[in-house]
Specification:
The chain is α+β, with helices and mostly antiparallel strands and about 140 residues long. About 55% of the residues lie in helices and about 15% in strands. It has 4 helices and 5 strands. Strands 2-3-4 form a 3-stranded antiparallel beta sheet. β2 and β3 form a beta hairpin. α3 packs antiparallel against α4. About 15% of the residues are buried. The protein binds zinc ion. Zinc ion binds next to α1.
């Protein structure tokens, strides 16, 4: 899902997918690993390996949390005329959105994602701008 857009935080190259077959369990695991590490070995970079499912569930959880909060703000917007309070909430969400999409949270450690769920981002940015302009009109 993210292989071409995830970059190694150390060397900046995109991550490669690595398959690992566990004979005892008879299951196959997919990992992202640094492409430099894969090609040139541990002298050039660290593996930075992470399970594909693990990364995807982290990212999806963050997006879902964000969507949930965005919905609450939109709900408030329709039911609450306190423009300042709403502006504060929207600003908080915007900060959170920036955080998600610049992915500076610890959980990602040395990971960098680019263009993550770009459509989602654009959709929420548009929704935000729309709400913002409505709020300005109200003032
Ligand atoms: Zn690397």
């Amino acid at each position: 899902m993210f292989a071409s857009i995830i970059k190694c935080g150390d060397c900046g190259r995109t991550m490669a997918i690595k398959r690992d077959y566990n004979k005892t369990m008879d299951v196959e695991y997919l990992y992202y690993i640094c492409r430099t590490y894969r090609v040139y070995g541990k002298d050039k970079c660290k593996s930075h390996s992470i399970r594909v499912e693990e990364l995807e569930s982290i990212v999806l959880k963050q997006i879902n949390d964000y969507i949930h909060k965005m919905k609450l703000v939109i709900y408030d917007y329709h039911n609450n005329s306190d423009v300042n309070l709403l502006n504060n909430k929207i600003n908080q969400l915007k900060m959170e959105q920036d955080k998600i999409f610049s992915l500076k949270q610890n959980i990602y450690e040395d990971w960098k994602l680019n263009d993550l769920a770009r459509e989602d981002y654009l959709r929420f940015r548009d929704a935000y701008i729309e709400k913002e302009s409505e709020l300005v009109k109200k003032n």
